[in-house]
Amino acid sequence: xxxxxxxxxxxxxxxxxxxxxxxxxxxxxxxxxxxxxxxxxxxxxxxxxxxxxxxxxxxxxxxxxxxxxxxxxxxxxxxxxxxxxxxxxxxxxxxxxxxxxxxxxxxxxxxxxxxxxxxxxxxxxxxxxxxxxxxxxxxxxxxxxxxxxxxxxxxxxxxxxxxxxxxxxxxxxxxxxxxxxxxxxxxxxxxxxxxxxxxxxxxxxxxxxxxxxxxxxxxxxxxxxxxxxxxxxxxxxxxxxxxxxxxxxxxxxxxxxxxxxxxxxxxxxxxxxxxxxxxxxxxxxxxxxxxxxxxxxxxxxxxxxxxxxxxxxxxxxxxxxxxxxxxxxxxxxxxxxxxxxxxxxxxxxxxxxxxxxxxxxxxxxxxxxxxxxxxxxxxxxxxxxxxxxxxxxxxxxxxxxxxxxxxxxxxxxxxxxxxxxxxxxxxxxxxxxxxxxxxxxxxxxxxxxxxxxxxxxxxxxxxxxxxxxxxxxxxxxxxxxxxxxxxxxxxxxxxxxxxxxxxxxxxxxxxxxxxxxxxxxxxxxxxxxxxxxxxxxxxxxxxxxxxxxxxxxxxxxxxxxxxxxxxxxxxxxxxxxxxxxx
Length: 582
What we know:
17-stranded antiparallel β-sheet
């Protein structure tokens, strides 16, 4: 024991065999840790001495602890009577944080399309006849609904999931959010914009299913430093198709709010899918907002020629805070200006309108940025055989946590028929799903303000390592676990409409306590009994096992001083334990 530099009373517990008692390995890039002892802090010397006395009595066998039916031990009360006898009382708490469980799935990661045969497809006469039957009553200029087209043009995924593909390289935004140079930030944002375009469907030239009103899609992107970026998307209407989504990583200092409305005017042999909407990227540290607009998509070859999909038209990246603006122009291969698919040209301008950089290249191969002062050419974004391996890992909602309006459940049968190429059954099921939707449902997670739909639960406060612990999502709401409890931005008051509408059909998940994910290695933590069994394997001596179990699971997390603050990640942040004296 020694006098602590902080308030309270501090002492150490050593592993009797010199093994780790609270961390199997150190946090990536952190200093080495002394993992064979645990530093514990009590509020004052009186309470600290009582815990030390309890340790000694446990080692001597004078205090026995009956774990009994306690599965979620959240409180340990030490009692000392007039005869200096110490007793231990364990209790459970029902105030566990509920959160969605995410799991990793085997998913194909399709590299960028580099040969024309991959971006085009050949439709036989029968398929063209089916398309003509759907479109022959339309006149050029009429707006059509993509879901009127035959089912063979669809891939077994919802548009909301397709939108999330754009964020496989969102770690580029993590770097931009910490870059102190404003010009380099806008360059990184531009690079990230191109990184979201090259992933293609394994089904070739295929369109995602248009979501029904009220449909929800959620996923998580896992970063190398074990932080998570949460994605929540909601379909606001199906005619016209309007989607809104939100992406957040508070620890890395950014969030993204997105809106997209698609309209498709018919022009004979092709359709120009007009993608109206914008992305709003915010860097909290610099109080900067980037507004990004989308190019259109041209679908050609409906009735003759090759069936192709290409991005076309103008889009931009603008930041009013620093004055920089990026103009991008996506070119069609059929025009005289380019003979290559997926060509793009652009300019990066200052607030005075001066062109600082010229951008040119092929967005699924390589895009260069050229400094106009010294004509130096650098690679802004490139795709090679290793690029998909650099993408972040996507985690999906576990089946037991899917709601009835989650994309995976809404289109489950349709996905199966499309994978089996049973297009007649797929068409019937799509029609049935569309007929069952309730068009009167209003947005649950987004509110229309200032011309865009904004997520209701944005937490714009800057991340505090000493206060904030981790983010999690439940029922479409992204929360932050803090040392004082749970926070969800300005809208912590859970909307009754969300609670009433979010239905887990035949799910038993809400009838039990859901454990929070382990921040370092697992997406959920083992319960106390499982950890005790693990300890039993490591300790032969029963008394030492009881002593370790008691003080690994019964001491307050906030009283533990781990030397390196990063080691806090190895403790379950929701496992808050308190004690009192009688």
